[in-house]
Amino acid sequence: MEPLANYNRLKALNLKLDMSRGKPSPEQLDLSLPLLAISDYKDDTGVDARNYSNLEGIPEARRFFAELQGVAVNECLVGGNSSLELMYHTVELLRNTYGKGKWLCPVPGYDRHFRVTEVLGYELISVPMTAEGPDMDEVERLARDPEVRGIWCVPKYSNPDGYTYSGEVCKRLANMSAAPGFTVIWDNAYGWHHIAAKGDELPNFTALCKAAGNPDRAVAFCSTSKITFGGAGVAAVSSSEANINALVKYFTAMTIGFDKLNQLRHVRFLKNEGGLAAHMEKHRAILAPKFQKVLDVFAANLPPEVAEWTKPNGGYFISLYLNAGKAAKTVQLCKEAGVILTPAGAAYPYGKDPEDRHIRVAPTYPSSDDLQTAAELLCVAASL
Ligand SMILES: Cc1ncc(COP(=O)(O)O)c(C=O)c1O
Fold this sequence. Notes:
Helix content: 25-40%
CATH topology of the largest domain: Aspartate Aminotransferase, domain 2
Mean pLDDT: 97
Number of strands: 13
Oligomer: single chain
Largest sheet: 8 strands, mixed
Radius of gyration: 21 Å
CATH architecture of the largest domain: 3-Layer(aba) Sandwich
Bound molecules: pyridoxal-5'-phosphate
Number of domains: 2
Order of helices and strands: HEHHEHEHEEHEHEHEEHHHEEHEEH
CATH class of the largest domain: Alpha Beta
Number of helices: 13
Low-confidence stretches: none
């Protein structure tokens, strides 16, 4: 069918679909419902998790996340439901210690990361992403500026490209010269979220920084937001013992402790790294066909002169790259036909994609049928 006729046909369906944010679907949330039922509230040391204490997290939760993140227990703090909140306060503490300055932002990247450093007063500097991670020649060049205080990294199945950093990029980030206090926010939000049967491998960045003589450089985060519940999971941060102690001291002014009951029921449910891997296989069974569906619709409808896109082995997103100047108009056409996408430019500092090429596609939340229709509409709008 001719694209305009096809667009009008889809528009006439009065669609109301949302592919804007990477949320787990209701079916995925249901996988973790059994964790809500617990009747014994004592942690491993006999402390009642319902009461105040243990700002750094209950012992079994610290052991669980330390194992996942490949650090010692005293190098790990377990917090509330949001890793983004832990990142916000970590950057706030860095700003209070070293002052405002510039922050490196691999692009396209996670809009909420960029917003954290923006509202905390940093100047955002874009660095191009490659399939191996950020362009390290550029990172090393920019970090010679003593005003550069840190970099955002989503090292595995990056948001939004789905790329995993190579061993070489990880080593260079750990070893490169930078101003004192230069911090790599290592947001491993999708570390266990494989889509392909064989997932990508990521080196232990905290260990690399230690070996490079920069033990305080890596501050690594993760959460169960896309493992158990998007709004009611558990988040953790790992780093050198000195950094964790500084965070504990900082958080002491803010809270008496995080939700330990949620920590306890999460550890009882997920148990250990093996238990987590088995649980993630259930997510993979739901998500792999959804990702494949979008990729199939793109392959069938988008010729190479119109678009190219990423084919991730994991994570929550696909990046669609159109010809320069076409992304915002395509998103607008989709909106007018009832399909909401992430605003064009959202994955760039200050919400501005200088080439107006990139659209972030989030296939996790819609049902399979809705996904098919939404992806078809996106292809028609891009072709128009
Ligand atoms: C890269 C990345 N980090 C962090 C988050 C938010 O994590 P949390 O729910 O733990 O705050 C997201 C959510 O989309 C994300 O994509």
